[in-house]
Specification:
437 residues; alpha+beta; SH3 type barrels; Thrombin, subunit H; MgtE N-terminal fold; 6-stranded antiparallel β-sheet; 17 helices; 21 strands; 33% helix; globular; magnesium ion transmembrane transporter activity; CBS_dom_sf; CBS domain-containing protein; MgtE_N_sf
């Protein structure tokens, strides 16, 4: 039975299994961030059979069972685990540290020095994991622990972004980023000095940093990618959507972009190279190769399973595109598309080929941005198929990517509000806020 609550102490030593029953390693620790009683479980520290310790993001954890942890894939990143600023390893740093509590349910513990014994983790409705409760106890004169009390995290005092004790500015910012959207993190970073931007970027995990870099203004994006070093920059680009990676590489000097493309995994770099071959002022230059693309034999159930994938944006999950093999772009003959709402109205076993919208035209890679804007306005859609002259699906254009191309180049440097309200309520940067504190 899959568990939605588990103590970190029980996880330690559990086997990590692949989806086909293959053993990957053992859980050694849990990595979290905690800031002002808000928490986020980042992932697990896994000891491989060769004793190397690696990091497994919680996104790669399929389930936690009573006796084992199941991974979504047997393929793991073999890069040795290194803790970053603002991250806390529960067993290594948190257990055994001193705190106190103001929990009204445990008035007898008020004003007492307590020791953390274990930490309870809980999966939220959004499927993210967080710290819910902390097991604490008093240590007696002879070194023995007294009765254990379980206290809500919100009632634990003495914790900071870096464990126990005072937290540094960067650690607090990194912890606060856990609660923010990528676009808001980009705004916050853009308000900081370049040196601090780089320090913070180095501490953000690749998957998260990829989303943030995509939202940054051009100057900040170039600066961060240059300062990360080519190996880390290539890893971040691999995690980005192909169209965002193509945009970022196009902003760099040709020599640098060539090096980064060569360092990227060929499977990730191939669609990026293809997108970079199109003119930036055409639909081909702003489309993405990431979309829900199925064959005619796929069912409604399969299509909805793809649409539920959290890695697929809301705009790209609104339409399912049906093609003849191959499914990877450029695909075989493009047959048509099905809207998500239509899928929801039909039985799971229905073939998607029976529900195709055959009247919706497709965009061409050579179409202008204005043509694409008129398309979206005419058909009230948030993404559209893009085909070549042979009617092969080359990609999909999302309305947010089109807006990004149509807005002024410096729009990310400005408040998203327009008119008097933005002038009356100027935004205070994080840098200024911490300077006053």
């Amino acid at each position: 039975m899959t568990e939605t609550r588990v103590y970190a102490g029980r996880l330690a030593g559990m086997m990590l299994m692949g989806p086909y029953g293959d053993s990957i390693g053992r859980v050694r620790d849990v990595v979290v961030t905690i800031y002002q009683h808000r928490s986020h479980v980042l992932g697990l520290v896994i000891a491989l059979p060769n004793k190397r310790q690696i990091f497994l993001p919680m996104l790669r954890v399929a389930s936690i069972n009573p006796s084992e942890v199941m991974a979504t894939s047997s393929s793991v990143n073999l890069k040795p685990f290194q803790s970053r600023s603002g991250e806390i390893s529960i067993q290594h740093e948190l257990v055994g540290s001193k705190v106190h509590t103001d929990d009204p349910e445990h008035a007898e513990l008020h004003g007492q020095a307590l020791e953390i014994v274990d930490v309870e983790l809980k999966q939220s409705r959004t499927r993210d994991w967080e710290v819910s409760r902390v097991a604490v106890a008093q240590r007696g004169r002879l070194g023995r622990l007294g009765k254990v009390a379980v206290v809500p995290l919100s009632r634990i005092q003495g914790l900071s972004a870096s464990g126990t004790g005072p937290a540094d500015n960067n650690a607090e910012l990194l912890a606060s980023f856990q609660e923010m959207r990528a676009a808001d993190i980009a705004i916050a970073l853009n308000d900081l000095p370049e040196e601090q931007q780089t320090r913070l970027a180095r501490e953000i995990p690749n998957e998260r940093l990829a989303d943030v870099v995509a939202e940054l203004p051009e100057d900040s994006r170039i600066a961060i990618l240059n300062q990360l070093g080519v190996e880390r920059a290539a890893e971040v680009l691999e995690e980005m959507e192909p169209d965002d990676a193509a945009d970022a590489l196009a902003e760099l000097p040709a020599g640098t972009s060539d090096v980064l493309l060569d360092l990227m995994d060929p499977e990730d770099s191939a669609p990026v190279r293809r997108l970079m071959s199109f003119s930036a002022d055409t639909v081909g230059g702003v489309m993405t190769s990431e979309a829900i693309i199925l064959t005619p034999q796929a069912t409604v159930a399969e299509a909805l399973a793809h649409a539920r994938n959290p890695d697929v944006s809301s705009s790209l999950s609104s339409l399912v595109f049906v093609v003849r093999p191959p499914q990877s772009t450029p695909t075989g003959h493009y047959l048509g598309c099905v809207h998500l709402q239509k899928l929801l109205r039909h039985p799971p076993a229905t073939l998607v080929s029976e529900l195709l919208d055959l009247d919706l035209p497709a965009l061409s890679v050579a179409d202008s941005h204005e043509t694409a804007a008129r398309f979206f306005a005419t058909y009230n859609l948030v993404c559209a198929p893009v085909v070549d002259e042979g009617n092969h699906l080359l990609g999909v254009l999302a309305v947010d990517d089109l807006l990004d191309a149509l807005l002024p180049e410096d729009w990310r440097d400005q408040d998203w509000r327009v008119g008097n309200e933005a002038q009356k309520e100027p935004q205070t940067s994080l840098q200024e806020g911490h300077a006053d504190a």
